[in-house]
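Re: [help] complex structure
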Amino acid sequence: METIIGIDLGTTNSEVAVIQSGRPVVLAEDGDPILPSVVGLDPQGKLLVGRAARNQYALSPERTIKSIKRKMGQDVTVALGNQNYRPQEISAMILRALKQRAERVLGHPVKKAVITVPAFFTEGQRAATREAGELAGLEVVRIINEPTAAVLTYDPNPPEMERLLVYDLGGGTFDVSIAVVEAGVVEILASHGDTQLGGDDFDQRLLDFVCDRFQTEHGIDLRQSLVARSRMIGAVEEAKKRLSTEPVVLITEEFIAEKGGVPLNLNTEVTRDEYESLIEPLLAKTLKCLDDALEDANLQAQQIHKVVLVGGATRTPLVHRLLTTRLGRPVHAEIEPDLAVAMGAAVQGGLIAGMELGPVLVDITPHTLGIAALGEVDGFPTPHCFSPIIERNTPLPATRTEMYSTTHDGQKGAEIRVFQGEEEDTRLNALVGEFAIQGLSAVAAPNQILVRLDLDLNGILRVTATERATGLEKQVVIDNMMERFRHRERTDAIERIEALFADSDDFEEEEDEEFDEGADTSDEGSEAVPEGAAQVPDDSSTELQRAVEAAEVQIAKASSLEASASKEDAAEMKGLIQDLRAAVASGVLADIRRITTELEDLIFYLNDA
Amino acid sequence: MPTAHETFGVSSTASEAEIRTRYLQLVREFPPDRAPERFAEIRAAYDELRDPAPQLERRVLSLHTNDSLGELQSELRSRLNLAKLPTAAFISLADAP
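Output below.
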């Protein structure tokens, strides 16, 4: 049976696990199961991932990147050495290191992975994570939610039905999920969270507290100097950990700054009370999420049987106290909070590979999906009214249809803009995708349009708009991974990462070559596209550019289906791809669009078959 | 289209506990990732058995139905007469305008 590894790609730490003799095992090297999620370059420009990168952070912050997870899904770049990288690329370096660890420990190549994300990640953040996996040479067979993964490590056959509340406070993200475990089925009832709240914020508050004190005393802001700041971050992280077990902690850093030629030392005491008053407002936010999740699940606190704590930040004693008070029961960390998520990901991987491990999982979508419609927000008419179609906490896969109508007589087309979020005003939600249905019958308004959303387990969304009277239909698949990813960029990114790893001493070259098969296949898959793309004429009006990109996406999708299609279909597809490449090369917009649509239709047909 | 009770293979007088047990059994048999379409049917039927009101609403909007409001009302009434609706459904029906 093929190996599917489970990866917990955390803000601070990452782990990789696999099923061995029917049980999930976290893979350790040198006795250490944890790989810090830190990437850096050493003074010679060699890539460091993990502990070595973390160790150099205090001295070389400009060559070190941590907490990249908080930027996933954002359109930003971060500087590492003299290069800029997108968050996906940095995450890919961590994933690649985990893949290599798995290969070294298992002694054979690894190609497939389940990667976990916070339950409250949006489709965009999930797509970025999937992309990172592909860049690392992994086929991401499933993205699953971290709290869900934690639940999968539990016995799925308790003697009586059990309701669990999973409180997952990691380095950078917070989730709370409510699950029911009964008769071999794990059902997630509700998830809430905050993708920008975690232990990093505790560090920041403590950092500000200590630096403010130092500034009052010496008139120097330690946060202004990159090196002093990174040393201070290391110091407060350490202090934070010790405050979990000690009531008072002394923070000392020698020669942290200089004033009039005299070196200054930092020497300050922080009590647990002081620390707790700093972080209490942050924890209050998590309790609000917890209330929302209970309300969504239609449950009272006393109906919860077990509280499961996940994530390193749940070691904070104040977290235990606040939860105990709120839920009216003692809370226990029943599982290893740092490792449970990776283990659960391995269980999911094993289930996908076909192992009989027990639980069947019913997960939900944590965010509402819908479209923009004409309506009223706060009493004012607006075209930005959010009309929900798949409500949050709907089990996956989900299919829902809503009816809309045209607003004026003889309306020929309608713009379908799909959003994700909970706000009434679509401008406050995240745009997931958009398309137009054209060629509607010339009839008086209202002409009824049915909009159907199909969301599958992999977060791939299919949107179908149908004119009710005629059956005229237009469908698009919103698969963020393919659409956001420009293929040329992707090939470049893979090459850059390969090059960095080739320079790195961290990993044994011989084994690398032996195991390179996995990376090769992903290269082959993407090859089809740059070939066609290379022929794009330089004159690039944006419309043409967009059409070409759309064409590339379809060609890539088609290429991936070629192997599984029947002979006839494959031949037809090949023909269309050839035509499309020719059209791209000649740069005729109408042709590109027409053939892209034909190819798109064929792909849908093949996917349905 | 089969009714929710038919999909579940339970009698129209099945209790909430019977429906739950049967649901778990069906989900184990047709997990979401191995039988996504069958699971979606099971889930839709389960939702309807627990709370039929939204399903009836959806049928009014559905493409393939010619049910008049009157028919739907009488169906709803006959179901109410069976008095085997879950409590939550009663409450939501009472809330309806």
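The domain at 199-277 of chain A is CATH 3.90.640.10 (Actin; Chain A, domain 4).
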